[in-house]
Design goal:
The protein is 62% helix and 0% strand. The protein has helices spanning 2-23, 31-58, 79-98, 107-130, 158-176, 187-221, 228-258, 263-278, 286-309, 318-336, 339-346, 353-357, 360-388, 396-401, 403-408, 416-428, 472-475, 491-513. The two termini are 55 Å apart.
Length: 535
């Protein structure tokens, strides 16, 4: 009992991993928004699962649980533990979806989708595979089961959790459509290296939490058996081997194909290996986990290429990592499961003839089809209804400015290093070699206005009398200079310069009035903001 509760905490900790991972991939102008969506999965999911989802998932019934309201589990043997453990699974399934909708989905629409995910979509699948009397369940009550003598093997949720979340994410990304500048790919290029640390840290937290996912299921399933710790140890070994083998295959493929070692692809392959082994981690031997993880990496790469070919904008490759790898995980459980391991987990009374004969793969395929059918129907209905009500996608202007600014009132300003990189690119692309750069600080203070344009080569955009004067950035190191470029401005640059000017004005007002900012007086040189010429 204690082990299950501790593992539930580890699964809950995975929410932080998802948040950090998504923060490392989404554009900085949408960072706060994606974090808020991850928070919504927790605060809305607990009530959705309490009021509706727990009954559908944990009560007895055929298609869904119908034998009384389960609620929070009060009055039932192990009810509180079952509720909390299953809710962490529901929260994980809901969080998976957020990455596919990043950058263009209304926050209110996501609130609705998150609630529906934890209340209806996930619980129906969970009852189908794990519930007492479920259509494909290995549970004790087989009177309402679709198969009288067999079942679908999904130990910890390759299909129930990850495939479900991946399919919902795919449909959401397709209905939403691509981001307006999806094909340009300019914005993330400069920021990519700076954010790899978040992707790495998020993946590491998820890998750590995955032991709670898989080993916790072993303790939960075998609460009254003495060999639960041995099964949990096997599960941990298989989980690690699958993730590692998947990463090795993806890294090798990336090196051969591009000549480079792609960190983001390798980390996604780690997750794909974890997803792949989740269904069969207790049923297969370590050599089966090795093959499962290796093929999970291939499944992820094929899915990623297919999504790009179909021009579906899935920023975090949710369907490739969770959907495609989840489908492979269900198939792998049927291929590599052994009769002895199945009996060790579920008891000697369980029929394993299909596992021994190889017919189990057919049952796994039926499970994949039924999960896909229900999840697709529920997701398409939800997304199309929100789209018809004009509640799904943000406006083009809001998307351009960023959801942090449009929804949360937080404007994104590029870091100093990025602005220097942009100025360097502008200098290198100048067509006239005799054009001079004028420092912002070299111009008269009263004429420093970020909106002035460089009308002709050599002219000072900030005031008369400084034509032809070279900037300190031409002679000093780029880390010390404050030079500006004469590149042609775009509407996005003008909009960003407007924001910089407004900030400069506000800071200048604070300095003149000697008003403290955050308990400290602002030094004068903080108002020397840089003009942005490229984006």
């Amino acid at each position: 009992m204690t082990s299950v509760l501790i593992c539930s905490f580890l699964i809950f900790f995975m929410q932080l991993g998802f948040a950090i991972l998504e923060a490392g991939i989404v554009r900085p102008k949408n960072l706060t928004n994606i974090l808020f969506k991850n928070l919504a999965d927790i605060i809305l999911g607990i009530f959705a699962f309490w009021l509706i989802g727990s009954t559908f998932a944990l009560s007895s019934g055929s298609l869904i649980g119908t034998q009384g309201w389960y609620g929070i589990g009060d009055g039932k043997e192990g009810g509180f533990l079952s509720f909390f453990f299953q809710w962490t699974f529901a929260g994980t399934a809901a969080t998976i979806v957020s990455g596919a909708l990043a950058g263009r989905c209304k926050l209110e629409a996501y609130f609705i989708l998150s609630f529906v995910m934890s209340a209806v979509i996930y619980p129906v699948v969970a009852h189908m595979i794990w519930g007492d009397g479920g259509l494909l369940s290995i549970g004790s009550d087989k009177s309402m089961s679709l198969f009288h003598d067999s079942y679908v093997l999904d130990f910890a949720g390759s299909g129930v959790v990850h495939m479900t979340g991946g399919i919902v994410g795919l449909i959401g990304a397709a209905v939403l459509g691509v981001r307006k500048d999806y094909t340009s790919g300019k914005f993330n290029r400069i920021e990519k290296q700076r954010k790899d640390i978040f992707v790495f840290l998020g993946t590491g937290i998820l890998w750590f939490g995955w032991y709670g996912f898989n080993c916790g299921t072993a303790f939960y399933t075998m609460q009254k058996r003495e060999n639960a710790i041995n099964v949990a140890a096997l599960v941990a070994i298989n989980t690690t081997i699958s993730a590692a083998s998947s990463a090795i295959v993806c890294t090798t493929f990336s090196r051969i194909r591009t000549g480079m070692y792609n960190l983001t692809k390798t980390l996604n392959a780690v997750l794909a290996g974890l997803v792949s082994v989740t269904a069969g981690c207790a049923y297969m031997e370590p050599w089966g986990a090795l093959l499962t993880g290796s093929m999970g990496s291939v499944a992820y790469l094929l899915g990623s290429n297919g999504i790009h070919a179909l021009k579906i904008d899935d920023p975090l490759e949710v369907f490739s990592v969770h959907g495609v790898a989840g489908i492979w995980g269900l198939l792998a459980a049927g291929i590599f499961a052994t009769s002895g391991n199945v009996k060790q987990v579920h008891g000697e009374d369980v029929t394993t003839s299909a596992v021994s004969s190889g017919a189990q793969v057919g049952y796994q395929v039926i499970g994949i089809l039924l999960i896909s059918a229900w999840t697709s129907f529920a997701a398409i209905s939800s997304f199309l209804l929100l789209k018809m009500l004009n509640m799904l996608r943000v406006t083009e202007d809001e998307e351009k400015r960023g959801l942090d600014f449009a929804v949360h009132g937080k404007a994104y300003v590029p870091s100093l290093a990025i602005r220097r990189s942009q100025r360097s690119q502008s200098k290198a692309s100048m067509s006239k070699p005799d054009r001079k750069h004028v420092s912002f600080l070299d111009c008269p203070r009263d004429s420093r206005h970020p909106h002035d344009r460089l009308e002709k080569p050599g002219a000072c955009r900030y005031g008369p009398g400084l034509e032809g004067k070279r900037s300190r950035s031409d002679s000093n190191d780029s880390n010390q200079g404050h030079g500006v470029s004469g590149a042609v401005e775009t509407p996005a640059i003008v909009d960003l310069n407007n924001r910089i000017h407004q900030t400069d004005t506000a800071i200048s007002t604070i300095i003149r009035n000697k008003k403290p900012l955050g308990g400290y007086y602002v030094p004068k040189n903080i108002s020397r903001l840089h003009r942005i010429d490229t984006i």
